[in-house]
Amino acid sequence: MARTVGIGIQDFGKIIENDYFYVDKTAFIKEWWESGDEVTLITRPRRFGKTLTVSMVEQFFSVKYAGREDLFKGLAVWQEEKLRKLQGTYPVISISFANIKEKDYAGTREKICQMLSDLYTDNAFLLESDVLREGDRDFWSRITADMGDVEASLAIRHLSKYLNLYYGKKVIILLDEYDTPMQEAYVDGYWEELTALTRSMFNAAFKTNPYLERAIMTGVTRVSKESVFSDLNNLEVVTTTSCKYETAFGFTEEEVFASLDEYGLDTKEEVKRWYDGFIFGNKRDIYNPWSILNYLDKRALRTYWANTSSNSLVGKLIREGGRAVKESFESLLVGEHLLVPIDEQIVYDQLDSNENAIWSLLVASGYLKVVRYEKYETDHIIKAPKYELSLTNYEVKIMFNNMVSGWFSKNLSDYNDFVKAFLSGDLDGMNEYMNRVAGETFSYFDTGKRATGKAEPERFYHGFVLGLMVELEDRYVITSNRESGFGRYDVMLEPKKEGLDAFIIEFKVYNQKRDASLEDAVKAALMQIEEKQYAAVLMGKGIPEGRIRKYGFAFEGKTVLIG
Length: 563
What we know:
The structure is a single chain. By secondary structure, the chain is of the alpha/beta class. A hairpin with a 2-residue loop joins strand 21 and strand 22 (559-562). The longest helix is centred in the N-terminal third of the chain and has 19 residues, at 149-167. It is elongated and about 90 Å long. The relative contact order is 0.08. The model is unreliable at 447-454 and 483-487 (pLDDT under 50).
């Protein structure tokens, strides 16, 4: 009989006690413990079992779970006697930043302080012991929701000391989702304030802490060392490209197919198309657990993992990115690969100005996968490795399609009307609808500014192209900024079926030094299509010139003229 699938349960003991569906990942405990690493930072995309792993590690080592062999009997970690003897023998401090998603620094700081205060309350039995001296008790009394920065920075370190004195053993510290408040701080503009506090906390807890036995930190991203880890030279960082713990997070294909057999589901190929694609280290064919669990429970192919959070940061970076970012994203949407140098350390300060930093975040977040990467040297200078990237799987593609559609949601009717006019050759309708679309969405895409202070309309144009790709991908192969003839066209729509017209679009920004009017800009766009012979690639594929429609789009601010 198939086990019950418990959705959203992140308490290891609750899963085991209720015999809910569980894929044995306890071998991680052995691998981690025997590594000997003092402080381990593990980054994995969201919903990949990080919190459940932290719960599992806590319940294996914590003295609070002494005598709970029943939780681990029959699992991989229980096979060796030396590991069995470790169960329930260490004081453990376990905290999570997963729910710290405040809109300002004051709220974030208060929530962190309240969490630290609750941690002390949970260990209030120490106050009744004789291990605390007068100075310790005085410090304890200052651990409140409105404590000062000094107390907040030292709270974990001091609690480690008290537990060490009480139990006679150094502590294991577990910090789950350490970077969640940092992402919020970047989005909402209080990055510098938060990193100053967390840098002090992490240094005291993980670097200058003589009472520390081992520590695990988990998160989605590897935040740059300069931001919060500047003093932690004892940090072992395990990212998605690292070979350590390759199968400890996420389900392998063997595990997924075994689960489908358990539930009598003969849908392996469909499940593989939708949810396979993650690569950790050298291990390919990793599936995200959240989608698989939901599929086992609901037995329907849907975007489960991609819809579990707002994806606000990802959407912001792509929507507000410049032309190069959108062009690269367009290539990804049509199944092509990018070859880019990236640094796995996420430098949030660079996300607005460094295109490669954006791809780094998308890789860490699981939206892009590393097909391959290579390190190389030139004249004895080690350069950043180049990564070949692609969309992770079909579920991720659907998520991005929905995201792009959402960009036009406020005026979706006008946008759909424009597409209909575009396909039917209704030039008056195209001009009417496009001006409404541009007027209502231009500023939404064009949030960035050039050094001159002028807006960059190209951001809107390529947002528009992305919308076309989502709307018409079932009928057309849509490409942009590719070579054809003697130049590079802006947008090309190649029909997938016979009988449909092909399209070439050239954008021109009105320039008063070059163009007497918008009409002249349109003529220049159309002339460029002819002079550069952009239709050559379509005609080379057998599409007659009479079935190739050519449009020039001229823009002056939010005003558009199509001819």
